[in-house]
Amino acid sequence: MFQTMAMNSEFTKDNSLISSIRLVFWVGAILLSFITVFYIIYANSFLLTLRRKELGMYMMLGAKKKKVAQLLFIETFGMGIVSIIIGILVGMLLASVAGNFLMNGMEISAKGSYASVYTPAILVTAIFFLILFFITGLMNSVRLLRKTELELIREDETLDEVKKSKTRIIIMTVLGVLLV
């Protein structure tokens, strides 16, 4: 919806009120993009951690590491494509509902210039997520290729030691108190 509102110049030029808040939609789209990147990378890392034992077992049973990494990449990218298609369809529906709600709330008329299906916004969204899922698939493959079969299988048994720096703790505490 942010992309549709921010990129549709016909809609914003017909409505002086909307054109004045166009920047808000751009900032919202950029902020949402950053949040999405970090969320997808974190969720993907978490899911890969859950599957490490399974992937290690495939390799122990004779599957080549490169083939397993390739399969993981195809799986990640394929699921990304499916989620892009579903997300765009649901997004068009929600953009229509939210756009109508926004226009009714602001008591403005769209005069036929607002469309929840705005091709440039859909293309930008699809390209953004294709690149994101491509990068995540590569990250998964690289993480898998760097580990041995035993490291993958016994990953949950190893303890991660957290290094505690007194200086860092003091700085973070002071910053926390000052920012609150």
From TrEMBL:
What are the GO cellular component annotations?
Answer: plasma membrane
Per UniProt, residues of the ABC3 transporter permease C-terminal domain are 27-147
Supply the source organism for this entry: Bacillus cereus
How does the entry describe its membrane topology? Answer: Multi-pass membrane protein
Superkingdom of the source species: Bacteria
* Location(s), subcellular: Cell membrane
Keyword field contains Transmembrane: yes
Q: What is this protein called?
A: FtsX-like permease family protein
